[in-house]
Design a protein that fits this description.
alpha+beta, 5 helices, globular, 28% helix, 9 strands
């Protein structure tokens, strides 16, 4: 398991902007497809605290994540799981033992109240620009396609400043 402080800025873009940026930066990055499966709880504790509980499958890895807002960005707790555990979560909302289950119990989320709330497929082009990770995303949810830029930096303040300058340069 790993804890990570995520300091990212996100911005929705339109299809034309996406195609421009994708074509401009494709040679710098790596394109991957990832699936996110999201869970909520019947008491809306996760929703009200703006906490994300998800399974992310990409390449050859499956991880369970909790993403919770904190002052400096987002606390991200990552727990590797296997395909059997993934199916148990999807079909029966049975959480594996570990830091994520413990964290959810600390905020009074009972696993019997969990339910699958949706899934998202994302095609992500990501590349580094110095100490900043740039992600250009195309995501599919039901019949909806959306486009987004994520910029992650060492601190939230640095990511915000870099993003401001990067968006100015790209407009």
């Amino acid at each position: 398991m790993a804890n990570h402080l995520e300091c990212e800025i996100k911005s929705m873009i339109n299809e034309q902007q996406y195609l421009y940026l994708y074509n401009k930066y494709f040679h710098l990055g790596k394109l991957i497809t990832q699936e996110n499966i999201y869970f909520n709880d019947r008491n809306d504790i996760l929703k009200n605290l703006k906490i994300c509980l998800r399974i992310r499958t990409k390449q050859n890895s499956i991880n369970l994540y909790v993403k919770a807002p904190i002052k400096e960005g987002n606390l991200e707790i990552k727990q590797p799981i296997d395909s059997f555990t993934k199916q148990q979560l999807i079909q029966k909302c049975i959480l594996p033992n570990g830091e994520i289950k413990d964290y959810l119990h600390q905020i009074n989320v009972d696993e019997k109240d969990l339910y699958l709330s949706g899934s998202l497929i994302t095609e992500r082009l990501s590349f580094l620009d110095g100490k900043y990770l740039i992600c250009i995303d195309k995501s599919y949810y039901k019949n909806i396609v959306d486009y987004e830029i994520e910029i992650e930096g060492p601190t939230l303040l640095e990511a915000e400043q870099y993003a401001k300058n990067w968006f100015k340069k790209e407009n």
